[in-house]
Structures are given as C-alpha cells and as structure tokens.
Design brief:
The complex is a heterodimer of chains A (about 550) and B (about 325). By secondary structure, chain A is an alpha+beta fold. Chain A has helices at about 1-15, 40-55, 70-75, 100-105, 125-135, 140-155, 190-195, 225-235, 280-290, 300-305, 325-330, 340-350, 405-415, 430-440, 465-475, 480-485, 510, 520-525; strands at about 30-35, 60-65, 85-90, 160-170, 205-210, 240, 245-250, 250-260, 260-265, 305-310, 315-320, 370-375, 380-385, 400-405, 420, 440-450, 450-455, 490-495, 530-535, 535-540. In chain A, strands 1, 2, 3, 4, 15, 16, 17 and 18 form an 8-stranded mixed β-sheet that branches. The model of chain A is unreliable at about 1-20 (pLDDT under 50). With about 325 residues, chain B is mainly α. Chain B contains 14 helices and no strands. Chain B has helices spanning about 1-30, 35-40, 45-55, 65-75, 90-125, 130-145, 145-160, 180-185, 185-205, 205-220, 220-230, 235-270, 275-285, 290-320. The termini of chain B are close together. The chains are: A alpha+beta (about 550), B mainly alpha (about 325). Chains A and B meet through helix 3, strand 12, strand 14 and helix 13 of A and helix 2, helix 3, helix 5, helix 7 and helix 13 of B.
Chain lengths: ~550, ~325
C-alpha cells in the first residue's frame, strides 16, 4: 500500500524540486455520496458533473450511490465518516424566516447532534447569527443576516448549487386564474390559493393530487409534507406566513411587542371550533402548552423560548426567555390552535402511557380553520369541506386531495379533468410546462423555492477543514451548467442559503460576485500551496494525509 | 376416517409453513440495509428522545427477545404498531386487504374463465390458422410487463378515449356508507375496469396455454375417442368429457397464481393509484417499517397458503381418482 505512494512521491520530488523541496502527501480518494438516479435524477446528474470537474483538479473522486434511508445513516448519524455528499433543504413556510437556516445549519452548538452535520465551526459566525436572533428591528437584523451570508460566501462551508423551482399547474376553465396566489418561495400550492380560488363554472371543488400517502391528521405531529397541507387548513394559527413570505396576523387580531422579551397577542372575537364550541384564549394558551408538554416532541423546539403565558380578557401575553426575532414565524405562525376540551384529556392520558400524542388520531379532527374535516379514505383520498362560518371562508366548496402515486397519471388526470389542480409533480417540470403550452385550459406556474440543493463538505476531515480548498472546489463548477444540465433550467444558481425568494433577507452580492471556472480553481489551489503531481492533487507543504487507507 | 387424519396432517403442515414464513419475514427485514432509526427518528431529537423512541419500538431489546415478543403478540392477533404511521398494523392491513383481494380475484376469475375456454377451443382448433394467429398473440400478452400494459391501457382508454377514470376506487368526494355499498356501486366497477383488465390480460396466458396442452393430451386418450365413436356432439366431447379432465392441473395453477397475482398487484396498484396492500407493502419496505412490512407480507402469505390448502383439498373432490388415503 505504501510502495506506490512512495514511488510517486519520489518521482514528484524529482520533478518539483525547484518549486518545493519538501513533498507533502497525496490527497486520498474523496467520496461523494448521492441518492440513486431513479429517486433523485437532478442530484445524480449534478454529482456526476461535479465529480468530473473535481477530477480535472487532480482529485480522485468516487461517487457513491445510496438510498436516502442508508444515506442518513452514513452521513447524519456517522458524522466523522464521510467526505462530501449531495444534500438538500426543502422549502417550508416557516423557513421564510432566515433564522432556521442561518442559525441551525451553521452554529457550532448544532454540530454534535443538530443540523450542522458538516461540523462548521466559526466563532465569528456564531456571534453574528446569535445577534440576528435577538435583534428585533427588521432593518438592523437584515444587515446582520446579509453579513452572515457574505461570511458564508467567503468560507464556502458548503458548495451551494441551486434553488430549484417548484412547478404546479391548474385548470383555468375551472378556477379564475387571477385568484390563484403565487406565494413567494412556496409556489401556487398554498393555503392562500385554497382560500381565494374562485370557481368559474359548475365545478366548485378543488381536486388536487399528492404522490405521498397521508400519514396522520394530527395538529401535534409533523408527520409529512402532504399532511401539513391538511392541518394548515383545518387548524388556525395566531399568525400565518403571507403570500409575501412575511408573517401576518391570522387568528390574532393584532400583536404588540411590550419589550424585547414580551409580546401581547389579541385573539380575534367570535371564533368557533368545528364542533360549535367557542375558541377561547385559554384554548390558545393550552395549544402552546401542549406543544411544549413533551407529548409532541416535534413541536417542542418551536415553543422552547416561551417562559410563561398569561391571559387577560382576549389578550394572551407570551414572556420569552430571551429576545427572539424569529418568534412570529417560528412559533406564532407554526403552532396549531387546538381545542382544550378535546386535547386536554388526551395529553393527560398520554402522560401515563409510553406513547405520545403523535399516536393519537382523532376520528374527526376538530380545528377552527377555514376548512373542516370531511372524510379520509386510507391511501386514496381526503375530503375537507369549506367552513362558511370562518372569517376567511374559502370560495370553493370542498378541497379533495387524491393520492396518485403514478406521476404520469396525475398529469393525465389534470388534462382529463379528474383533478383540476396539479399540486405535486416530482417528475420533470418541462413535461408539465409542455402540457400547459399545448392545452389552453391549463396554466403552469414555476416559483423559485426557499429550499436549496448543495454539496456538503465534512469539515472534520482534511482537506475540507481548509477554506481555501473548499473555495477552490466550489469555484471549479459553473452553477449555470448545473442549472441547465441537472435542473433543465428549472432552478436558479445559488451561493447563499437564503433564497432569492426571500427578497428581504437575500444577499444578492453573494451570487453576483461569484466566479467560476476550472482555471480559476486550479489557480486558487496553487495559491494555497496545493500542487498537482503526476495528475494527482497533493496537500500543501507540511500537511500529511491522516485518513488514507 | 383416514381422510380426516390426512386433512389434519395437512392443516398441521400448513401451520408449520406459516411459522416458517413468519420467522423468515421477521429476520429478513432486520437484516436489510438501512435502519428504522434513520427513517423515523427526527434528527432534531435529543439522545434521550431517540432512546425513548427506540425503547417504544422495542428496538433496544436483543433480536431473539424481539422475536419472542413478536410471536407472543401475534398469537394474540396483535401485529404491532407501524413505526411510520404510529398506528396498529392490523387495522391498516385489514382496511387495505379487501381492495387487493377484490382486484386479485376479479382479474383471476376473468383470466381463468377466459383462459380455460380459449385454451380448450385452441386445442380443438389445433393446426388451424386460428391457432397460428392466437398462440403467438397469447405469448405476446405473457411477455408484456404489467406496468407497461397498465400505462398503455391508461393512455388509450383513459386519457385518449376518456372512457375510464385514471385512478382510485371512486369518483372524487364520493361517499359510501359501507364497504359493501362501495363494492356494489357502478362507480367502483367503472374504476376497477382498467386495473382488472391489466391483470387479467397479463394472467390469462398461463391457464390458456396450460389448458390447451392438457387438452391436447386428453384428446388423444381412449375415452375421448370412445365418446366420439358413440356419436356425441362436439360440444359434449370437448367440454363434458375432455375439458373436465384437462381442468385439474389448471385448478392447482389457480392457487399458485393467487400468489403471483398479488405480486403483480404491487405494480398495478401503483399505476392505477389503487389503495391496496401492494402499495402499502412497497412503502413499508422502502421505509424500513418492519411491523407494517411483516404484517402486509404475512397477510399475503396467509392468503396464498390458504389457497394452496383449498386447492389440495378440492383436488380429491374434483377427481375421484385422487384420494387422501
């Protein structure tokens, strides 16, 4: 094993004596992990492209393909054992506040267990993102968030690639196109559309599709993307993320910061649960307590900053443990309001059992939202009915979700009228756009996503602990090539974890100032002391390979 | 008297096969790569929460104890709780099983009735132009992958002609008071047409070809010649004498086909968005949901084993020459 290494090192020494008298080690074979082509065609494609460019830098790159279940084991739960991997963050309404991404993904405290699985550790960056969290003035906070993005662009902890566009479509002969809402960073598949879409003719039901089964309809369980479409409609929240991506009062009439750690929320008058009981401030306080009770582990983190809740008339006052700028988005827009008369006994019972509230499925889920639960046929369909008594009553009569695992069939169903809103299409978006071009009754809408795709570097393992090395690897690939070849144009190039869809927070300079090219990357490596010998990249002087076989 | 002991032994044998299936299923899923940890434990969880969940799933116990617990629960009719859905497996599996069974048996009965009649006819027409056209045709249908055939039928009869819906068991938002009300509704049969046709076209080849070759053997036998000499009508000779005798191996193949068909259902249920056990099974396997995958496989195994038992026992009733003595 050592013999070939030595000979090549010796040969290298002869050829490079003038430049560098001391020879450093050759960089080991680098693994790049991706999910299979069948499951993630774009990801598979861009890893191949990236591996190809890296090889041109003199790296030996081994692309390793594994399904998600295995990947999470090999990467997330084995944090010391991988080199580089394709990864993604998906867009969710609560990620409209940059905190979850700029803080959780890179703060050093989340490196051991949390989202910072790459092990990025930069005290200066930690300080910045801690500061944005407690800065309540939006403009001031914006400058900090932009500075954090600039720091990431400099450090290149990840190789950011693209923000994909989500493409959905609907039937314009059924729904008035002017009433379909394109939510920033989310697309037309959103609660606002389902509330405002106005029927033009006899069909008054929104019939949409999902390729995933519905797992649960439970306000205390984050059970899946599709499930959240339902809970967002059946349950109200104090605030909701508006079409512009910013939180706005919903079940709250208004809110007011009393001081840095106290916020008073006034509940809207006259709200009722779907079973006819009135919605009280006690219900609201209970909803937050239930989320923090330990019986709803997934919601726990969203109420962690609440120290105390007090009620006075229709006012609910939250005292926080420390100032929290993301509180409106991450807590008030996130926690489902649930009726105390139903859930209090459930929580009490669950406290005595070894299961938790996630296992409890109501026969008829009761919320106070703009749609009420109608029926649920296992793996086939969920029907919601418009709640005419709601202050934001939907224009449609029913909301019918069909489970269609066959993606091609879903598009066919949209054309034939079996569904009138294509809300899920995991396949090639160009197919949807082509279908819409062909059929005057169909409109496809593509929206830049909050989520993003990237290649993560493991900072625990050299040479990825060297920012210069990461910068060079990142610069070796032109993002426009990735967008064109892997995403077929349905994405925008990215160099920041804060999507351009979040216009207020996004630092456009990070992307605009980005330069790429193989010569540039080679130059960057050379400047940092790396050298290519016999076609293989070697560490800078004095650095030895500690992880080779 | 003897028949009863034979049947008893056969039942005992069935129970043994079932136990073997249960055991293999249990260990098979646990030896697969990937872990339920990855699929169900949110990375945001604290180590205590992760440990708690592991304990709840029973995954903190040694494998042999997990197996004994599983067997014990099974004896009480408890299939466990799905990791993914956090709900009892038995409930889900029993809710989906009828959809799969009705699809399987409808298509198989259609395939076997057609296959037997057409097979007998083709044997009768041995050497004719009809045979020269039909046999390659049947072989072609046997060679078509089910998902491809399903997509083809969808493209032509649903998206092209608009005659049939593209998926599901009912029109959007339609409600039925009971399973029976659903199954007896015209809408259900309308929705079921394409998936049943797909499965039936795919599976008619086996009974057809089997029947044809059996018939050709039987037709050469003395009793058929005898029947002809007696001057019986063609119908009587082919159907009442020859076909009855050629039918027996086809009967056995029916029992085996039930197993194969459920396998085929996995694909057809996905193509036609049919809420059956097959789709659930794929999902459970891909997400390492052991209890659900085991439960679904077990249901299918039970159906297959029962069908084989029934076929065995019926054999004696159909053919007096076969006895259990």
């Amino acid at each position: 094993m050592t013999l070939p290494l030595r000979t090549s090192a010796f040969a290298a020494m002869l050829s490079a004596t003038v430049l560098s008298p001391v020879m450093a080690d050759e960089i080991r074979t680098i693994n790049l992990v991706t999910r299979p082509q069948a499951a993630q065609p774009a990801e598979f494609q861009f890893t191949q492209l990236i591996a190809q460019e890296w090889r041109r830098l003199g790296l030996d790159v081994n692309v390793e393909v594994m399904p998600w279940e295995q990947m999470i084991q090999a990467i997330w739960f084995s944090r010391d054992d991988w080199d580089t991997t394709a990864w993604q963050m998906v867009g969710r309404p609560e990620r409209s506040d940059p905190d979850e991404i700029v803080y959780n993904l890179f703060h050093s405290t989340t490196a051991e267990q949390g989202f910072n699985f790459i092990g990025y550790n930069n005290p200066e960056y930690d300080a910045l993102v801690e500061q944005q969290r407690v800065t309540l003035d939006p403009d001031e906070r914006r400058e900090i968030v932009r500075a954090a993005q600039a720091m990431l662009a400099e450090d290149q902890p990840n190789m950011m690639l693209a923000h994909p566009q989500s493409t959905y479509a609907f039937n314009t002969s059924v729904w008035n196109p002017d009433t379909v809402v394109d939510q920033s960073g989310i697309g037309i598949r959103n609660t606002w559309s389902y509330l405002q879409m106005e029927p033009l003719g006899d069909v008054t039901d929104i019939i949409l599709n999902s390729s995933d089964n519905v797992t649960a309809i439970n306000p205390l369980y984050i059970s899946g993307g599709t499930d959240s479409w339902i809970t967002e409609l059946v349950y109200d929240r104090l605030m909701r993320i508006g079409p512009d991506g910013l939180p706005q009062p919903w079940a709250a009439e208004s809110y007011e910061w009393i001081d840095d750690t106290t916020i008073r929320v006034t509940l809207r008058e006259g709200m009722t649960w779907h079973d006819g009981m009135p919605v009280t401030p006690e219900d609201v306080a209970f909803s937050f307590e239930a989320a923090g009770s330990g019986e709803a582990p997934m919601y726990g983190p969203f109420v962690g900053s609440i120290a105390d809740i007090t009620i006075d008339g229709m006012d609910i006052t939250f005292s926080l443990t420390e100032p929290s700028a993301p509180f409106l988005t991450a807590s008030l827009s996130k926690i489902n309001l649930i009726p105390m008369h139903i859930w209090e006994p459930v929580i009490a019972e669950q406290l005595t059992l070894d299961t938790n509230a996630e296992s409890f499925q109501e026969e008829v889920p009761i919320g106070s939202g703009p749609y009420r639960f109608g029926s649920w046929t296992l793996n086939e369909e969920v029907v919601l009915e418009a709640n005419a008594e709601h202050w934001a009553a939907p224009k449609a009569d029913r909301w019918i979700l069909r489970i269609v695992p066959n993606v091609e069939a879903a598009l066919g169903m949209l054309r034939s009228g079996e569904i009138n809103f294509l809300s899920d299409f995991p396949g090639d978006p160009t197919v949807v756009v082509a279908a819409a071009d062909e059929d005057p009754n169909l409109t496809a809408v593509s929206t830049v996503d909050i989520g993003f795709r990237y290649v993560a570097f493991n900072h625990r393992r050299p040479p990825f602990n060297d920012p210069a090395f990461r910068r060079a690897l990142s610069a070796s690939v032109d993002r426009r090539l990735i967008v064109g070849a892997a995403f077929r144009g349905f994405a925008v190039p990215s160099n920041s974890v804060v999507s351009p869809a979040l216009g207020f927070w996004h630092n456009e300079a990070t992307v605009e100032g980005m330069e790429a090219g193989i010569e540039l990357a080679q130059q960057m490596l050379e400047d940092a002391g790396y050298m290519v010998v016999d076609g293989r990249l070697h560490y800078p002087e004095g650095v030895s390979e500690t992880l080779g076989e | 008297m003897k028949a009863i002991t034979v049947i008893g032994a056969r039942l005992l044998q069935t129970a043994f096969v079932l136990l073997a299936v249960i055991t293999i299923l249990f260990f098979m899923f646990r030896l697969m790569p990937g872990s339920p940890l990855a699929a169900y434990i949110d990375p945001n969880f604290t180590p205590e929460q992760q440990a708690e969940l592991m304990a709840r799933f029973g995954l903190d116990q040694p494998l042999w104890r997990q197996y004994l617990i599983y067997l014990g629960n099974l004896l009480q009719g408890d299939l466990g709780e799905s990791f993914f859905y956090r709900q009892p497996v038995a409930e889900r599996v029993l809710a989906l099983l009828p959809n799969t069974l009705i699809l399987t048996f409808s298509s198989l009965i259609l395939a076997y009735v057609f296959g037997v009649l057409a097979g007998a006819y083709l044997a009768w027409k041995r050497g004719s132009v009809v045979e020269q056209i039909c046999v390659p045709l049947v072989l072609t249908t046997r060679a078509m992958p089910e998902f491809w055939l399903g997509m083809l039928l969808l493209a032509v009869f649903s998206f092209g002609m608009g005659w049939f819906p593209a998926g599901g068991t009912r029109p959007p938002g339609a409600e039925y008071d009971s399973l029976w009300a659903l199954y007896s509704s015209a809408d259900f049969w309308w929705h079921m047409t394409l998936p049943v046709m797909t499965l039936a076209i795919y599976s008619q080849g086996l009974p057809l070809l089997l029947m044809r070759s059996n018939m050709m053997d039987v037709m050469r036998e003395d009793f058929v010649t005898m029947a002809r000499i007696k001057g019986l009508s063609t119908f009587s000779v082919v159907i009442r004498h020859a076909a009855r005798n050629a039918l027996l191996p086809v009967m056995t193949s029916f029992a085996i086909a039930v197993g194969y068909q459920i396998q085929g259902n996995v694909v057809v249920e996905t193509v036609f968005s049919w809420p059956g056990l097959g789709r659930e099974l794929v999902r459970a396997v891909s997400t390492a949901d052991y209890p659900l995958a085991q439960g679904a496989f077990l249901m299918i195994a039970v159906v297959v084993i029962l069908m084989n038992l029934v076929a065995d026992l019926l054999y004696a009733a159909l053919d007096p020459r076969v006895t259990h003595e």
